[in-house]
């Protein structure tokens, strides 16, 4: 999602401001925060005009009627007028101004207060498509209507570092909240800066070359100092990773919908490294003896591991780097639980870093 940031004190210059994107990461991160108010684009529409015309047609009124409620709810409305390149630059500048005013006047007649409107006109200087044809000219003859809302945002800066050496590492950060998501890339020394709406909870994850992904939830509280310190350990043989938010429907090797993004993160970790892994599938069978390897319950745990294995192979990860195995109910996180929430956590997949030259992988390749 492209998010347009416009500091409140600079609204009159909004046409010169860049498009800004955001995101977050996982590793050793130290963050310093700064709170500021911005306008964020939440919706954009466009009304197209006939050649050398600025008056609204009946079809234009119908289209504008449909967005009046959204214009009323917006904190600020930016109107930008444009023309094609037929005629002189001076004439087209005046024509674009008339088009902008016709849209503004329509909304004012609908009872929308004039204080929320900001207008600008660019004549033929900002075409969507360059060229000379009636089809191109029709596209360029327009007024764009940008609907913005005021948001308090937190500017966060930090650095991603390796746990063992404390040296900065290059990584991609992703931040996702209920109404906001974006991504950024650190510089070569691991430094980054991003902005996000204040007073919100986000899922934060990180991808870096030769590291396993990390994910956590963070809360950016209003007007409070915000600092996160995360160290990124290099994966080593024997390390175990429980895939976060990665759970299955009861009795089948089918992921819950919320778990699909984690599958993509696992792929990125494997694609950005040369590690080999064991994929351990687990089931929920609490308050019961260990299932045997011929039981349907055990087979389900194998199916869950193989579901992950197959998904990685389909995305392009070599099968020689992965070993899927089922563990039945032998290693449940909550072996005596009666809680549904804990039962969901028992239905999981774990990732173990293994030696790429280990006997279990070599034997699998020979077969």
Q: How would you briefly describe this protein structure?
A:
The chain has helices at 58-73, 89-109, 134-140, 260-271, 296-315, 340-346, 359-366, and strands at residues 3-7, 19-20, 28-29, 32-48, 76-82, 117-121, 142-162, 172-176, 181-185, 191-197, 200-207, 214-220, 231-232, 240-242, 276-281, 322-326, 349-354.
Would you write up a description of this structure?
The protein folds into 2 domains: 234 residues, OmpA-like domain (60s Ribosomal Protein L30, Chain: A, 2-Layer Sandwich); 133 residues, OmpA-like domain (60s Ribosomal Protein L30, Chain: A, 2-Layer Sandwich), CATH 3.30.1330.60. It is built from 7 helices and 17 strands. Strands 1, 2, 3, 4, 5, 6, 7, 10 and 13 form a 9-stranded mixed β-sheet that branches. Strand 11 and strand 12 form a beta hairpin. The chain is elongated and about 80 Å long.
Query: What's the total helix number?
Result: 7
Question: Radius of gyration over alpha carbons?
Answer: 28 Å
Highest CATH level, the class of the largest domain:
Alpha Beta
Anisotropy-based shape: elongated
Unreliable stretches covering 5 or more consecutive residues: 1-33
Largest sheet: 9 strands, mixed
Per CATH, what is the topology of the largest domain?
A: 60s Ribosomal Protein L30, Chain: A
What attributes characterize this protein structure?
disordered N terminus, 4-stranded antiparallel beta sheet, single chain, 60s Ribosomal Protein L30, Chain: A, 9-stranded mixed beta sheet
